Amino acid sequence: MLTSHVIDGKPVVPLALITEWFAHAALHENPGLTFHGLDEIRVLKGIRLENEKSCIRLFAGKPRKKGTVYEVEMQVRNGEKTGRELIYSKATAVLIDQPVPLPDFKFSKAMLSKVSTRKVEEVYEQILFHGPKLRALKRIVSCSPRGMVAHISCAPVPDEWMAAPLRNRWIADPLVLDGAFQMASLWCFEEKSVVSLPSYALCYRQYRHPFPSGEVICVLEVREATNRKMRGDFTFLDADEGVVARLTGYEAIMDESLNRAFKPRYRASA
After folding, report:
1. For site-directed labelling of 176, which of 23, 76, 213, 268 has its Cα 20 to 30 A away?
2. CA dihedral defined by 210, 211, 212, 215, rounded to 10 degrees?
3. Could you tell me the maximum CA-CA distance found in the chain, to the nearest angstrom?
4. How many Å from the N-terminal Cα to the C-terminal Cα in the chain?
């Protein structure tokens, strides 16, 4: 799978897969509870695979009760003995022991008024770097300054992506989440002519286990955008437009150098 996530010539572990690791570790230490989401998801340093491998460690703190949920502090750290601790990413896992009702969600139909003319094949050939296994976008419905609506593929079973998966099915859906990040990057390119990478998300909440099979509808609502950063919210819907999950307070960093890192062949003309 990592051969489909190569940036500037090096495989990089997707944030979407790291969120799955967080969910797995939180549940592993707390049997009987259900994964409900993550808070304060932060990328501190990308995990780039040097010499085709990298050793990492996953840390989970003790659960603490907060209202009706349990919170668990999570970190991904380096695993090599380098003499110093390096934290790649961190978040707070949110676990529950009772079902949570589905939230209502209505998005402005004005977001659908500007139909996208971009073909998915063109997006992956000319803009995004993702290889065959991570080409999550199935159809781009609309794209406007207010956001984007698209259909995203759900992930295949874990053993189609890795030799020794932690579980036989996903807790969340790393392909759906990565597809959302791809949408954000494409939106940045369309509006600012620069692609982006995820750096932070305030809150992820999941209301269905597992995700629907096949595909979901993803609505990106952009809240703020400068020449360096975009901030927005994602809502993932099933075929009946019921809420599956939400990712809010998402932030992505834009940089012109990423255009060349995504598509190294562009360097010759840069």
Report:
1. 76
2. -150
3. 56
4. 29
| CB contact at 8 A, 4 and 131 | yes
* Distances 132 to 54, 183, 186, 261 between C-alpha atoms, Å: 23, 16, 17, 18
Report DSSP state, residue 190: H
Share of the chain above pLDDT 70, in %: 96
Cα 223 to Cα 244: distance, rounded to the nearest angstrom: 21
Q: How many domains does the chain have?
A: 1
Please enumerate in sequence order all residues whose Cβ is within 8 A of that of 80, keeping only pairs 6 or more positions apart, or say none: 55
What's the distance, CA 86 to chain centroid? 22
Q: Alpha carbon of 95 to those of 57, 151, 159, 166: distances in Å?
A: 21, 28, 25, 19
The whole-model pTM stands at 0.94
Going by the DSSP 8-state scheme, the letter that residue 12 receives in this structure is B
Q: What share of the chain is helix, strand, coil (3-state, %, to 5)?
A: 25, 40, 35
Other CB atoms within 10 Å distance of the CB of residue 181:
23
| Rounded distance between C-alpha atoms, residue 174 and residue 15, angstroms | 9
- Here the tokens at position 254 are 């834009």
- Domain CATH number, residue 231: 3.10.129.110
Residue 118 CA, distance from chain mean position: 22
Alpha-carbon span 79 to 56, nearest angstrom: 4
List the chain residues with pLDDT less than 50.
Answer: 266-270
Helical ranges in the chain per DSSP H:
15-28, 120-126, 174-192, 256-262
d(CA 131, CA 134): 6
With residue 13 as reference, give the H or E element that holds it: none
| CA separation for the pair 88, 79 (Å, rounded) | 11
pLDDT score recorded for residue 265: 58
Cβ–Cβ < 8 Å for 127, 158: no
